[in-house]
Design goal:
The structure holds 2 protein chains of 2 kinds. Chain A is mostly helical. Chain A folds into 2 domains: 1-75, no CATH class; 125-183, no CATH class. Chain A has helices at 2-20, 24-44, 48-70, 80-106, 122-134, 139-147, 149-170, 172-179. In chain A, helix 1 (2-20) packs antiparallel against helix 2 and helix 5 (122-134) packs across helix 6 (139-147). The model of chain A has no long low-confidence stretch (mean pLDDT 83). The longest helix of chain B has 31 residues, at 117-147. Helix content of chain B is 69%, strand content 0%. Chain B has one domain. In chain B, helix 4 runs antiparallel to helix 6. By secondary structure, chain B is mainly alpha-helical. The model of chain B is unreliable at 156-163 (pLDDT under 50). The chains are: A mainly alpha, B mainly alpha. The interface between A and B is large, with 29 and 43 residues.
Chain lengths: 183, 163
């Protein structure tokens, strides 16, 4: 439990800095730190798929925000701080490389499912019961159209809304409104 | 002349049938072999994208008019929701596989098996194919529109050729 409080404290401090700092770029990076804290929290709550999604969204959002702010507020780093930054980046890349090598070592043999290491993993239930529960031999289809059909309904709704938005924005009337707002 | 060269047009007019058939196969056999509604719908849409690249936008618009495509899109979404509601009405739970559990058990590894899963695949394939077609159509219209002011727009009827 202690790790959750530490993460929560970290996120609160980052949020306060993000609101209070005068430098726009530092504020954006603090927002990114909040997101990474959230993804670590998901990881400790044993929801790795949500943690991965959170990191991906966070990285994309951070890139977009930095791209948007860098034109307005350029911070130049030079001299000793440049050397320090290079050393820190090299060390961080090396640590990530070592961690990646460790993960490759712990992977099972090629062709063996990853979750076979855990005997009571949820995926084992799908593999052993899917044919009897749904009658479909493709287990992927039986998961996304039977066990987790709500998820598929949500995806279909997202797609439908995106299409409606695209056709509404690109249709003739909105273009006329853009040219002549009073009409 | 609209579109690409004669070689591209000839080859794509042969290949489009095969791509369309492959998409239908992926959708229909989604509960038996790898694939399903999403992948099959993308393949169906890609056959129309090939036609759009080879023959130009007007040709595709004559083949599959935009109102028809948007109606197919809505039909797919409604069918999927209808299957869910039928599960609530006939099986007692939203999205329950009522066909497999009560009415039509079928035989594993045969086309008629899996209850509502093939029907859901069909609905999703229809929906995803029509949606992707509409997206690419809207983007192509938008590009033409921003290039020159007098070109046709999304809600215009299939227009007369200017040249």
């Amino acid at each position: 439990m202690a790790v959750f409080y530490i993460l929560l404290l970290f996120m609160i401090i980052a949020a306060i800095i993000a609101v209070e700092t005068k430098d726009l770029l530092s504020s954006v990076i603090c927002v990114g730190a909040i997101g990474f804290g959230g993804s670590l929290m998901f990881l400790f709550l044993r929801a790795p798929d949500i943690a991965i999604t959170q990191i991906v969204v966070e990285v994309l959002g951070l890139i977009v925000l930095i791209r948007a702010t860098i034109a307005r507020d350029v911070t130049l780093i030079s001299g000793d701080r440049e050397f320090f930054g290079t050393v820190v980046s090299v060390v961080i890349i090396f640590v990530i490389f070592l961690a990646g090598m460790q993960i490759f070592e712990s992977l099972p043999e090629f062709g063996v499912p990853v979750f076979s290491a855990v005997s009571d993993a949820a995926s084992q239930t799908y593999v052993s019961n899917a044919l009897n529960d749904t009658g479909a031999t493709n287990i992927v289809t039986s998961v996304y159209l039977d066990y987790r059909a709500y998820d598929t309904l949500g995806e279909a709704t997202v797609l439908f809304t995106a299409i409606i938005g695209a056709t509404v924005i690109l249709r003739d009337k909105s273009r006329k409104l853009l040219e002549d707002p009073d009409a | 002349m609209k579109g690409m060269t004669v070689i591209v047009k000839t080859v794509s007019s042969w290949v489009k049938v095969l791509i369309f058939l492959f998409g239908i196969y992926i959708i229909l056999f989604g509960h038996l072999t790898p694939g399903g509604g999403f992948a099959g719908g993308v393949i169906l849409a890609s056959s129309y994208v090939l036609l759009m690249l080879a023959f130009g936008r007007e040709f595709v618009e004559d083949n599959l008019p935009l109102p028809v495509a948007s109606r197919l899109d809505c039909l797919g979404a409604l069918l999927f929701a209808l299957i869910a509601v039928l599960g609530l009405a006939l099986g007692g739970t939203f999205f329950v596989n009522f066909l497999y559990q009560k009415y039509l058990v079928g035989e594993p590894f045969k086309l008629v098996s899996g209850g509502t899963i093939p029907l859901s695949n069909l609905a999703i394939g229809l929906k995803v194919g029509a949606s992707l077609f509409l997206v690419i159509f809207a983007l192509s219209v938008f590009r033409c529109d921003s290039e020159k002011p007098g070109s046709p727009r999304l809600s215009d009827p299939p227009a007369e050729k200017k040249e």
